[in-house]
Design goal:
alpha+beta; three-stranded antiparallel beta sheet; Double Stranded RNA Binding Domain
Length: 124
């Protein structure tokens, strides 16, 4: 997520500052039938919840529970977690300089490898 545009990062930070009700208001909720184990109640009712956070475009869904309300709260938790990842500013990478000791070790290893090759191609 290091190539996230700055406006999305700012929108995610703004969303994380909101309370649950305001965050839910920014989302488009869709309900769907979540298949799997759980019997008739789960297979016939639209208890699966999909949340689309409009400002950032992040989509999360939850279908684990048979209750739509429980799935909604789980989806909001997932949305907060995803927005936290989106808002995270990666630390800038700074190039480091090789130490004198590491340069000397590298050159010594190269000399040894070169000597091995020279010894292999000896015609005597």
């Amino acid at each position: 997520m290091s190539d996230v545009p700055p406006f999305l990062r700012a929108a995610a930070r703004q969303a994380l500052a909101q309370d649950e009700a305001a965050l839910a208001a920014d989302c488009e909720e869709t309900f769907f039938v979540g298949g799997g184990p759980g019997g008739q109640h789960r297979n016939k009712t639209a208890s699966g919840v999909r949340l689309l956070h409009r400002p950032t475009g992040v989509v999360v869904s939850a279908t684990e529970r048979r209750s739509q309300a429980q799935n909604r709260s789980t989806a909001l938790e997932r949305l907060r977690a995803r927005l936290t990842l989106l808002a995270r500013e990666p630390k800038p990478r700074r190039p480091t300089k090789a130490t004198r000791g590491s340069k000397e070790r590298r050159l010594a290893a190269k000399k040894i490898a070169g000597q091995k090759k020279r010894d292999r191609t000896s015609w005597e």
